[in-house]
Amino acid sequence: MQLRIPGPTPIPEDVLRTQSRQMVDHRGKEFSTLLQNTTARLKQIFQTKNDIFLLTGSGTGGMEAAVVNTLSPGDRVLSVSIGSFGNRFAGIAEQFGASVERLQFEWGTPADPDAVRRALAKDSAFKAVLFTHNETSTGVTNDLASLARVAREAGVLILVDAISSLGSIDLPVDKWGCDVVVTASQKGWMAPPGIAMASVSEKAWAAHAKAKMPRFYWDFAKAKSFVEKGQTPWTPAVSTAYALDLATEKMLAEGMNNIFARHARVGKVARDGAKALGLALFAAEAYASNTVTAVKGAEGMDVKKLVRTLREEHQVYIAAGQDKLEEKIFRIGHLGWVTEDDIREVLSAIKVVLPGVGFKG
Amino acid sequence: MQLRIPGPTPIPEDVLRTQSRQMVDHRGKEFSTLLQNTTARLKQIFQTKNDIFLLTGSGTGGMEAAVVNTLSPGDRVLSVSIGSFGNRFAGIAEQFGASVERLQFEWGTPADPDAVRRALAKDSAFKAVLFTHNETSTGVTNDLASLARVAREAGVLILVDAISSLGSIDLPVDKWGCDVVVTASQKGWMAPPGIAMASVSEKAWAAHAKAKMPRFYWDFAKAKSFVEKGQTPWTPAVSTAYALDLATEKMLAEGMNNIFARHARVGKVARDGAKALGLALFAAEAYASNTVTAVKGAEGMDVKKLVRTLREEHQVYIAAGQDKLEEKIFRIGHLGWVTEDDIREVLSAIKVVLPGVGFKG
């Protein structure tokens, strides 16, 4: 079986097993030690001295937390979107009453830092910018270093959806000055879904003090008041925390630079392999993601049949496109617990299936 | 080891183990079958034909969902509180802009339906009432049948925190006409924390259509648009869903009436045992909860030392009081996977420890 959707991702055997440990008191010493250890490791992986909170929820909950903790209704926000998840981030901010300006780039391309600079210059009232580090729907990794520089120069708060990048692709949170950065346990973290993680800078705390969007469950201040004693304000996802604890230990044992290099190698195998099959990449190659590869369906090809046949006949799970790309692309996830050989297996299965789904390449 | 806090609760071995199954595609057939099976069982346990949604989050997230899906800022809401969790429910509604009238009853006592009737009669603008079925902080179970009847007569929406009751204490959702009822996986459900469950009545949907509180992650409409195909809008807590799937199967195999009777027997063992030790119950006995027993610390007794010593010397985990009761009571959780013998073990350990913590009974 090859589960190669862009999350949930496969989990190593020892991480799977550790979930089966019995419950403990979430306000007792054993759990607080675990939470403190995990948080310390997360700070290394996020490359930050900022606070980091574990939030029981999906990644989208983490995105909502980033918005409601830092903004007030009516605040001017620049959404920089290169795909479906960028649009979701904008939608959350709008839903909570922000005045969102949507700067959209063609799907498959990255955001242009100069265009972001020009957009920010048009309105001095912008308080925050929303970036997607890695756009899972199109397989594009933004040049977040440059985007964040432009945003810092404009003095706006930088909120980052790094759900499908952090832990797999280099993202030095402090060096790039990102204020709230969100990721989720089922992506590069080799753990099951259920925990979102968010880092919160000093500047984000200053914004929090003035932010008037309603918040209770996601309130960073409540999380902060518990984190120092190794607790969360609400009952945490204990089994998932067991998994994340061991998975982060394994990540640091492998070494973050080794993990980034492995993802780069695996991403190249996916891209080269797709091209060798006669298929075209959806993403501009210089910005193609090392965690998810989006491949164009060729003329006459039934992409949904490809995805279905791979599942039914080869136990290979990849994803179709999202939203307007649903029938136009397919996506291979390669983040977390993944090797070159895993992706070679996926490519071999695709090669077998292609002739039966209208591919004439 | 006896983990007898009021959640997380101990998990049976087979439920623990099932969490270790590998991830699957959360939008694939295997997971959709699981979600549909679990939801069908939940409808039996909730005794409802209403929609039921699994929300990735803690119970408090489910409470927030109940509020933001049905109310608008400025709406008049009657909070009926008998303890810490009742106050939390009111706090969530206030945080999102409701105009909350707080009807508070002495901690340790249940809500008086006549007082609720009088409070509701004072203002025809009340749109909703917030009830706690079982107040975990005081060990009191409200007479929800009578409270709900009063609320139905007043025509208000009935939002119920049933986090520590549903699945352990009878709560026929449709018969009592409760509009949104929330519970959480780590309580009577014998599963780890990470999934909140909420039932949503037709009347709640009508309220949802007009409700203007901002919502995105918790939006029932988004959940509804995915539930029919056996999916959730955001990535669900897959391992926790594995656990809940098996746990609900086990619950129906035991039979809900048997489970309610077992909790009643276990609750009686806890109450009789505490009294036999010379201690007094905190809750009015006619309303004492069958899922958590609150016991008063006697004159001169160090409750926190009792709790600590039980942990350190007997591996028996019970909870101290919350908020203003922190040093005044201790609480024994007995919900989910629990037998009379488990509680007898807890009582035996308490008996051993009592003389060393200032108890002169």
Provide a descriptive summary of the structure in words:
The structure is a homodimer of 361-residue chains. The first copy, chain A, has 13 helices and 14 strands. By secondary structure, the first copy, chain A, is α/β, with parallel strands linked by helices. Chain A folds into two domains: 14-253, 3-Layer(aba) Sandwich (Aspartate Aminotransferase, domain 2); 255-357, Aspartate Aminotransferase, domain 1 (Alpha-Beta Complex), CATH 3.90.1150. In chain A, the strands form four sheets. Chain A has a seven-stranded mixed beta sheet, sandwiched between helices. In chain A, a hairpin with an 8-residue loop joins strand 13 (319-320) and strand 14 (329-333). In chain A, helix 3 crosses helix 4 and helix 11 (256-276) runs parallel beside helix 13 (340-353). At the A-B interface, helix 3, helix 4 and helix 10 of A face helix 3, helix 4 and helix 10 of B.
